[in-house]
Specification:
homodimer; 231 residues; Nucleoside Triphosphate Pyrophosphohydrolase; Arc Repressor Mutant, subunit A; 2 domains; three-stranded antiparallel β-sheet; 5 helices; 28% helix; hydrolase (chains A, B); WHD_NrtR (chains A, B); WH_DNA-bd_sf (chains A, B); hydrolase activity (chains A, B); WH-like_DNA-bd_sf (chains A, B)
Chain lengths: 231, 231
């Protein structure tokens, strides 16, 4: 049965916009696209698309991400819905922002599928269209909070990583230098990494041991005693 | 300029639904409304409304709340946007859920303005239409998290409250009994309450001292040293 107490003109366009974070072992990056249509043609933008009739918002965000990256198994989380009346000068559009974490080192990742897209170091990211700067800021705040309470950072790391890379990641997310010895002690006390018998020889003559995240152990610990990554 | 790469049929109805929490000094409650139209006529529902052309989502949620409560200065926070294709069997509707915290003891509050609305203890709340149960659960999870890190609970308390009422509130939010002595010690160590020279004589012969929340002190503490309500 159709309801009749609303009018067709109450309808709005609903978009998703994705804040895509990646990590290149040194810096946290965000994936942006150069806009090739008006308004704001030529400016940098988040990657977005409109919600279709046959999908929910999570599916719309996953579709947009797959188009851009070829990946269909990305960490994706709804962030916030933006609705300022004039946020898009073209036509009133409400946008649901999602943030995604990509392991750019994954063998499934062939790189970006769209020429006008580019990774930027967060610190060097250009000004974005509409309210997209605000979206990125909110995503960073969420990432900071999540990274303290969940092992979310491992979504951004290669499967095998050095302690230095893990520290680089947390420093990028938290936006501050961490003391190396304290960091290593803290991570070791969490007891969720497996140290491999294998070194990354590209970082120094001596090399640096590689680690993997022990997801099973982590989940068991959470169940038994709770868990916090607070550094 | 109008964009033309989308179609009018991509448009959707956008609603807001509000999870309204109140606290009667003993129990955490949620405000529900009996639905008087199809589909699901006669069932209990969150309070909602459609987004209008001339307002953003925050304004829409505030408008819905004011219609129901007469209050226009309510703590209100966007929660999550729900978009399952068939969530509303009437017509595809996307809903942005907000949660609100009401001080039901405030002198500005004249009670509910709509006859079909009613407060329910959370534990005794009926089954709700659509995905509204899911919304209430998510709001509770958010409230639990927030109550541990921000003094958000004071939005629900009367201006002057007893230590027992504060403990009741935290027990309601966290869904577990707290040890009285530990609770009082923890709250005292936070040092953000002012003990008044005034007692609530309705609770016992001896009465119980009343407290107020010292917002200025709290804000100063947050600025200087951060803050956590972890109990």
């Amino acid at each position: 049965m159709q309801l009749n107490y609303y009018q067709r003109e109450d309808q709005v366009l609903l978009a998703v916009d994705c804040i895509i974070f990646g990590f290149d072992k040194k810096n946290l990056k965000v994936l942006l696209i150069k806009r090739n249509f008006e308004p704001e043609k030529g400016k940098w933008s988040l990657i977005g698309g409109f919600l279709k009739k046959n999908e929910n918002l999570d599916e719309a965000a996953a579709r947009v991400l797959e188009t851009l990256t070829g990946l269909n198994d990305i960490y994706l989380e709804q962030l916030h819905t933006y609705s300022k009346i004039d946020r898009d000068p073209g036509q009133r559009t409400i946008s649901v922002a999602y943030y995604a974490l990509i392991n750019v080192d994954s063998h499934q990742f062939d790189g970006i599928q769209i020429d006008s897209a580019k990774w930027f170091k967060l610190k060097e990211a250009p000004d974005l269209i509409f309210d997209h700067n605000e979206m990125v800021e909110k995503a960073m705040a969420r990432l900071r909070r999540k990274a303290m309470t969940k092992p979310i950072g491992f979504e951004l790391l290669p499967e095998k990583f050095t302690m230095r890379q893990l520290q680089n990641l947390y420093e990028s997310i938290l936006g501050k230098k961490l003391d190396k010895r304290n960091f290593i002690n803290k991570i070791n006390s969490l007891d969720v990494l497996i140290k491999l018998d294998e070194k990354d020889m590209t970082v120094s003559k001596k090399g640096a041991y590689l680690y993997v995240f022990d997801k099973d152990k982590y989940e068991k610990k959470v169940e038994e005693e709770g868990f916090s990554f607070k550094l």
